[in-house]
Write a structure and sequence with these properties.
This protein is an alpha+beta fold. It contains 4 helices and 8 strands, in the order E-H-H-E-E-E-E-E-E-H-E-H. It has a 5-stranded antiparallel beta sheet with strand order 1-2-3-4-8. Strand 5 (92-94) and strand 6 (98-102) form a beta hairpin. It is elongated, with a radius of gyration of 21 Å.
């Protein structure tokens, strides 16, 4: 598959939160190391265990989530699990609480594309009449979560536009939605590491 056909969506808000979080965590870690060296008390370095836990959580909750759109499928990389949905099993794209891929079996939400909230307001003046935005609400209005300038709205347009183009090119097999299920992969290594660091953090804080 041509890499030019691959689109990776990661919200700007998550990038900002990740970089800011890591900067603060790094400052805290450096302070802990300096404090231990200045006092000549190496046991205080145990404070780096909860620091490592926080750094991992920032990566898992904010940096890792993304959506990858290709001509073969849509992949939702969420905290602690990844879902891959083939175009042939997709029956709808919703934005009520987040960008959501709907299949006959269940609905899969993208952590990387939440509906508008305190940190994800729509961009004022953004267009809202794109042909791939999707149907209006039952009352005839337009959901804020479908508006361009929001993570959920922008990504919904991207996914629907690719879906329409592939369908028009007859590149999506028909009649397979019920038979083909989404692939779900749990991030076992990340979960195990978080549990290990969390378990070690309480005694580490006591030792520090």
């Amino acid at each position: 598959m041509d890499e030019r056909d691959t689109l990776v969506f990661r919200p700007t808000t998550s990038i900002v939160l990740s970089v800011s979080g890591w900067a603060l965590i790094g400052l805290g870690g450096a302070t802990a190391v300096g404090y231990a060296i200045a006092l000549g008390e190496p046991h205080r370095l145990w404070a780096l265990v909860p620091v490592a836990l926080l750094a991992l959580l920032v990566w898992e909750l904010f940096w890792r989530p993304r959506v990858v759109v290709t001509d073969a499928d849509v992949t939702l990389v969420n905290p602690f699990h990844t879902v891959t949905v083939a175009w042939s099993s997709l029956i709808d794209v919703d934005t009520r609480f987040a960008l959501t891929l709907v299949t006959p079996q269940r609905r899969y939400r993208a952590a990387a594309a939440p509906a508008p909230g305190p940190l994800t307001r729509p961009i004022t003046g953004a267009a809202s009449a794109h042909p791939a935005i999707g149907p209006a609400d039952r009352d005839g209005g337009r959901r804020a979560s479908s508006t361009l300038g929001t993570d959920s709205g922008d990504l919904a347009v991207i996914v629907r536009d690719r879906w329409m183009r592939l369908a028009e090119a007859e590149r999506i097999p028909l009649g397979q939605a019920d038979a083909q299920r989404a692939r779900v992969r749990i991030h076992l290594a990340s979960l195990a590491t978080v549990v290990a660091l969390l378990t070690a953090s309480l005694p580490a804080i006591a030792l520090a």
